[in-house]
Write a structure and sequence with these properties.
- The complex is a heterodimer of chains A (256) and B (270).
- Chain A has 256 residues and is an alpha/beta fold.
- Helix content of chain A is 32%, strand content 25%.
- In chain A, helix 2 (90-102) runs parallel beside helix 4.
- The two termini of chain A are 33 Å apart.
- Helix content of chain B is 77%, strand content 0%.
- The relative contact order of chain B is 0.11.
- The chains are: A alpha/beta (256), B mainly alpha (270).
- At the A-B interface, strand 6, helix 2 and helix 4 of A face helix 7 and helix 8 of B.
Chain lengths: 256, 270
């Protein structure tokens, strides 16, 4: 269970207001896609859910509890890049999360526990089609393989919430279809609530059950930092109906 | 004709080019030595190669008449022991200090500026202090090397820890890593290759401090011997010793490089 409630949330850095008066409720197991222009606080919002940034005003609640002030295993994250561990092989990258939970001091598992963990990691590897690359290092993988591994790595601890910050932004358009299939499969299998930032409008409609558009309502050309962004469009999506075609959008949104 | 920047030597060509400066140096020495000896057979400045062979024979394969020791190996053993102990201690301080400073912001604030200042103290300037406090024995010599080398290694290793992408550290926390596991399973393993790089870079200064300490207060050691025979202008001893020190230092550097490639293949640049 992981519902997210946002109540009158503000985020400011000194004079600069990034998010203003954001209120929102996201139900359990929703797949929320987030789009919006650069600098509109999408990533800041995600980082607050992650626990690396704190709200200036207002509340950010997961199942009614404030988000902890540091990252934890209940909230998984996939960044655009750099989130794999270069010194560990593919299988070790997956095992790491299980080793953290199973061994407080060594961070390594042995015997039956290790066999169980390896089994779980290998079935996940199979699911993302990386079994052949089991013992390679991340630097030996293509960008698409690295992101698949990063996604698998972030779900191995079975987080309640999965945060995706433009996970496919650096990838070839050709391989994103594969990635979409993997992410949807993992979402359904793991019963997570997903927040995904994307630049790709089509992707946001295809994947989400709900689309949030971050934008500024007001704009002062002489002091752009004085107004923050908020959710300007909140669109429920019926995924079955929309998977094939992108519906018409307000023009200013498409430009954003 | 390609641009010079695109002109690469073949494998054999690279070997030949690399050997060229050595050959030129040797040729120049032989020429100069022969010219000087032709003028004055007693010249001591540039001895003939045969003199080196005689020295090598008497120093490396015969016992010294006075002490009954084979001086070459006595000196090598004494110097290498000091150097390796000092480098071992420095590496230990470097990895522990670098990890703590790099991983924990509180420790960074506590020790960062101190280590930066410590690294700026000229080690040779405090050599007298070391001799006064620690005596003229082995401890002072090892301490000098450690003092000269360890702060640099700590700084280098901690810089590397600071360079690790924030994404990685956040990701590890979302996988449930405690500070301890984050340090030992994520940060520390990625510092080892940098520790080896730092050791390689500080190898030169480690030898410098070793020879300086041995020159001032010692009864055996490669540096001691060079400074002892300097009084007799015994170039036939000094030059082989210098070459031997260079060979030792080069071999250590080569071993470290090979160890890095062997143990940390993921860190090799492709």
């Amino acid at each position: 269970m992981a519902s997210v409630t946002v109540k009158h949330l503000w985020k400011e850095y000194g004079e600069q207001i990034v998010l203003e008066n954001l209120s929102l409720h996201v139900a359990d197991r929703e797949f929320v896609t987030i789009i919006g222009a650069s600098g509109c606080g999408k990533t800041t919002f995600l980082r607050m859910l992650l626990g690396v940034e704190q709200p200036t005003k207002g509340q950010l609640l997961i199942d009614g509890q404030p988000v902890p002030a540091e990252p934890g295993p209940d909230r998984g994250i996939v960044f655009q890049r750099y989130s794999l561990f270069p010194h560990l092989s593919v299988i070790e990258n997956l095992l790491l999360g299980l080793e953290f939970s199973g061994s407080r001091w060594l961070g390594k598992l042995f015997g039956a526990k290790r066999r169980a963990a390896v089994e779980k990691a290998e079935s996940l590897l199979e699911a993302i089609g990386l079994h052949a690359a089991r013992d390679k290092y991340p630097s030996q993988l293509s960008g698409g393989m690295q992101q698949r591994l990063s996604i698998a790595q972030s779900v191995i601890r079975e987080p309640k919430i999965l945060l995706l910050d433009e996970p496919f932004g650096a990838l070839d358009p050709g391989i994103t279809a594969d990635m979409h299939e993997i992410i949807l499969r993992l979402w359904q299998a793991n019963r997570m609530t997903v927040f995904m930032i994307t630049h790709d409008l089509k992707e946001s409609f295809q994947l989400g059950t709900r689309l949030l558009v971050f934008d500024k309502r007001r704009h002062d050309p002489h002091a752009p930092e004085r107004y923050g962004a908020t959710v300007t469009y909140d669109i429920p999506l019926n995924r079955k109906k929309h998977t094939m075609s992108t519906p018409a959008l307000p023009a200013e949104l498409v430009q954003g | 004709m390609p641009r010079l920047v695109n002109l690469h030597p073949s494998r054999g060509g690279a070997l030949a080019l690399g050997a060229l400066p050595f050959l030129i140096l040797i040729a120049a020495y032989l020429f100069g030595s022969a010219a000087r000896l032709a003028e004055n057979p007693d010249d001591k400045l540039l001895p003939a190669p045969s003199a080196f062979m005689e020295t090598l024979q008497s120093y490396a394969f015969e016992e010294d008449k006075r002490s009954g020791e084979v001086l070459w190996w006595l000196d090598t053993g004494a110097s290498m022991k000091r150097l390796l102990i000092a480098l071992g201690i420095s590496a230990f301080i470097g990895i522990v200090g670098g990890l703590a400073i790099g991983a924990l912001p509180m420790v960074r604030s506590l020790f960062g500026p101190f280590v930066a200042a410590l690294a700026m103290v000229p080690p040779l300037a405090i050599l007298p202090i070391l001799f006064i406090v620690l005596g003229l024995g082995e401890v002072a010599k090892i301490a000098l090397i450690v003092f000269g080398v360890a702060p640099c290694i700590v700084r280098d290793v901690s810089l590397r820890a600071g360079e690790l992408p924030k994404e990685q550290l956040i990701k590890a926390q979302t996988l449930g890593a405690s500070s301890w596991l984050l340090s030992t399973r994520v940060i520390l393993p990625q510092l080892w290759p940098r520790l080896i790089d730092a050791l390689r870079l500080t190898l030169g200064s480690a030898w410098l401090f070793l020879i300086a300490a041995e020159a001032i207060a010692s009864t055996e050691g490669l540096g001691y011997r060079i400074f002892l025979v300097r009084r007799y202008m015994a170039m036939d001893v000094i030059l082989p010793y210098v070459i031997w020190i260079t060979v030792l230092a080069y071999t250590m550097d080569w071993l470290l490089r090979k160890a890095r490639a062997r143990w940390f293949p993921w860190a090799e640049t492709r």
